[in-house]
C-alpha cells in the first residue's frame, strides 16, 4: 500500500499536470489550428514551450520510474504537436497511478546524473523536494510565462486552478 507521503507527492504532480493541460487547452483555443506556438520561447537561449512541457512531465515521470527501481527515462524533448504534448501529459499521469511504494523508499539514497559525468546523491526525500519539485515548477512556470508572453489570456487563477474548488463566497 502506498504511503501517505507518496500519495501527497502523486497528488501534487497529478493536480499540477492537470493545470499544465488546462493552460495548453487555453493556448489551443487562443491559437486555433496553428500549433507553431509550441515553438515559442522567452529568450533565444531557452527551450521552446513544447520542450518545457516535456521537461515538466519528466519530473513526475522519473519519480514514478524511481519508485519502481527503474532508471530515469526522459521524454522526447522536441514536442511539435498538440497530440504529442497531450500524450506526454496523459502518459505521465498514467505512470503516476502505478506508484505503489512505502515511506521507506523515500529514505533510500539515489544517484542522479546531472550531465557531463557529474552526479549528486540524495535521499529519496531530498530527491523529491530538492530536485524534482523545483525542476517541475521551473519548467511549468516557464511554460506559463511563454504562453503569457505569446498573448494567451491566462492569469494566476489558471495557474492556481488546483485551489479553485476551495474558493468560497462570504
Measured by DSSP, the beta-strand proportion falls in 5-15%
Alpha-beta classification: mainly alpha
Q: Helix count, per DSSP?
A: 5
Q: Give the overall form.
A: globular
Q: Spans of 5+ residues with little confidence (pLDDT < 50)?
A: none
Radius of gyration: 17 Å
Going by CATH, the homologous superfamily would be dinb family like domain
Characteristic key phrases:
Four Helix Bundle (Hemerythrin (Met), subunit A), 2 strands, 5 helices, mainly alpha, 170 residues
Describe the structure.
It is a single chain. The protein is mainly α. It has one domain (4-166): Four Helix Bundle (Hemerythrin (Met), subunit A) (Up-down Bundle), CATH 1.20.120.450. The protein has five helices and two strands, in the order αααββαα. It has a two-stranded antiparallel sheet. It is globular, with a radius of gyration of 17 Å.
Topology, please?
Elements: H1 4-31, H2 49-67, H3 82-97, E1 109-115, E2 118-123, H4 124-149, H5 156-159
Antiparallel strand pairs: 1-2
Helix pairs in contact: 1-2, 1-3, 1-4, 2-3, 2-4
In short:
By secondary structure, this protein is mostly helical.
